[in-house]
Amino acid sequence: MWCWWASPWGSDMEYTNHDLTEGNILKTLLVFAIPFLIANILQSLYGAVDLFVIGKYCAAESVAAVSTGTQVTQIVTSLITGLTLGSTVIIGRYMGCQKYDLVKKTIGTTLTVFALTALLLTALMLLFERPLLTLLSTPEESFSLTIQYVGICAAGNLFVCGYNAISAILRGYGDSTRPMIFVAVACVLNIILDFVFVKFFGMGVSGTALATIISQAFSMLTAIVYLKRSHFIFDFRPASFRPVPALAKELAQVGIPISFQELMIRISFLYLMTVMNGCGVYAAAVVGISSKYDVFAMLSGTSVANALAALTAHNIGAGKPERARRSLWYGLSFALCISFLFWLWAQISPQSMIGVFTSDADVIAAGIPFFRSCSYDYFLVTIVFCLNGYLNGEQKTVWTMVSSCAGALLLRIPMVYLFSRFFASDLGKLGMIAPTVSGIMACYTFVYVLLEKRKTK
Predict the structure, then answer these.
(1) CA 55 to chain centre
(2) What angle do CA 138, 70, 380 make, to 5 degrees?
(3) Number of independent structural domains in the chain
């Protein structure tokens, strides 16, 4: 039975989690995945609200600045996501075989490693932000604004890492509801601060970045206080933050391949952003807006993938691999139904999608063909996500790393280069790159899953 956030500051609460190894498979998956989906929707509102507020109250160069700056900050998010998913898988495996002492030690190791990672990422971002933005061909009109955005976001890396680490730990523990509540707190605060800083204080791009890091800091601190009061397995005392070398190594072995694949994927998309930036402010704005819809349209895939990683880890730890495999097919069917709706919207009325973020007629006109073609990626990449989520739960992270890196380096980047040479002015053709890459990846990943199933039998 799940315990909701009733009387959160009481001292007599008992922390409970959901057993992912028993009961109806479809019900267990949905009960675990839906809070995941809601949390990811809310988390995606961070960037979407930033862009919406900037588009409503600022000029096109500010929209381009947030669009490009978000691509840079997502590099950090991608690295963190990989490591946190590694933590989810390891904790889930130990929970499945009921090794609770190792669960506690893994949590302490995770939080300590992430604190050090945050400091390193902050230093790297501040050191290389200007060369990176130059490399991305950031439009001159928006360059200084992008520097502001990235610099402020870099200062909040500790909160980003801490917030994501705690959420990953809870999901590995079998709880996806409380992370959803914590992200809801951050999302509401972020929306309020966006309007306060941009509309009323006139802070522009820097206001949106400041709103984001303040809201994430508040969410992280709220989560820590709540968990300390609810008798969580980890007590958050200084003495408990002692990394165990063997567990740190295991976290690295599982998490680093995931982080590396996320980094390679992000680099390939940054290359696309570079090409689009070279086409001017309007094209850059189109890709920025499109990236927001990519996140929302693929949320069902990413949510189910992350849920599958935790659920698979629990069931593998409990010696129930067939239950994990059946969860994959249920989850994939659910995710495809949702992503299909976004594809349909992009085909019928792409102008209304773009119009949510900007009223600039030139941006809307440039974006219509791009949205219609790139939207095929919504359901193709969902297949890739779900298959990789299942494989990550089996700790086949080296395979998913090789697969994703091949898609990024051998498929996406060469295609972007060729299409930009021959179809530079045709955004519709440039939009076909992503679905083509995802379609190829979906085919060979599906074959690998079937081969692994046969080998296991």
Answers:
(1) 23
(2) 105
(3) 1
Residue 420: inside a domain, yes or no? yes
364 in any annotated domain: yes
Q: Residue 408 has what DSSP assignment?
A: I
Whether residue 309 is predicted with pLDDT greater than 50 in this model: the reply is yes
Token pair recorded at residue 354: 């773009």
pLDDT single digits (tens) 72-102: 787 777 778 777 888 888 888 888 788 888 8
pLDDT at residue 37 is higher than 60: yes
pLDDT surpassing 50 at residue 12: no
Amino acid sitting at position 157? N
Q: What SS3 class is residue 195?
A: helix
Burial of 398 (0-12, 13-18, 19+ CB in 10 A): middle
pLDDT at 218 over 90: yes
Vertex 74: Cα angle to 288 and 60 (nearest 5): 25
Q: Is pLDDT at 137 greater than 80 in this prediction?
A: no
Neighbours of 425 (CB within 10 A): 9
14 within domain boundaries: no
Per-residue H/E/C for 230-282: CCCCCCCCHHHCCCCHHHHHHHHHHHHHHHHHHHHHHHHHHHHHHHHHCCCHH
CB neighbour list of residue 324: distance below 8 Å, 6 or more residues apart: 308, 311, 312, 315, 316, 390, 393, 394
Cα distance between residue 88 and residue 86, in whole Å: 5
**pLDDT-derived band at 424, boundaries 50, 70, 90:** low
Mean pLDDT score, 316-326: 85
Q: Give one DSSP letter per residue of 24-73, joined into a string.
A: -HHHHHHHHHHHHHHHHHHHHHHHHHHHHHHHHHS-HHHHHHHHHHHHHH
Residue 387 and residue 390: Cα distance in Å, rounded? Answer: 5
pLDDT of residue 192: 93
Tell whether 134 is covered by a domain: yes
- Which whole-number Å values give the CA distances from 457 to 115, 205, 224, in the listed order? 42, 55, 43
Range of the domain at 324: 25-456
Question: For 232-283, what is each residue's pLDDT tens digit?
Answer: 888 888 888 888 888 888 888 888 887 777 777 777 766 776 776 666 666 7
